[in-house]
Structure prediction request, 130 residues.
Amino acid sequence: MWYYNNEVFEGPIDDWYGFVYLITEKSTNMKYIGKKFFWSKKTRQVNKKKKRYLAESDWQDYYGSNELLKENVAKNPNDYHREILHLCKKRGDCAYYEAKEQFERNVLFKNDYYNAFIGCKIHSKHLTHE
Prediction:
C-alpha cells in the first residue's frame, strides 16, 4: 500500500503525472527517496500505423529502482512502509521534488539511505509554477 498524508492512497490519479516517495524499511529504518510516474507511454498498431497512448504504470506494486532495496523487499515485502511525499502534475515537478528531498535529507552522506546517487537535469519551463 501507498500512504499519502497518513491515509491509504489509491487514487484517483487522473490529474497527476507522478509522485515522489519515501520507502522505509521498518526493521532497520533504512530509507529510499525516489520518483514514480503514474503513466507510461505505449504504442500499438492501428490500421497499420503506430499509435501512441498513455497507460497506467505499475505504480501500485513499485518498490524503487535500487537493486539492494529490491532484493530486500523480495525477502520480506511486509517490512516496508511506502509514503507519497509529493503528488506532481508534470514530469519536471517529479524530478525537481525528488532531487530537493534527496539534497535536503543529505541522502548521500548518511548510512541509513539506499540512495547512492542524485541525478537531475531540470529546466524551469518544465515545472508547474504556483
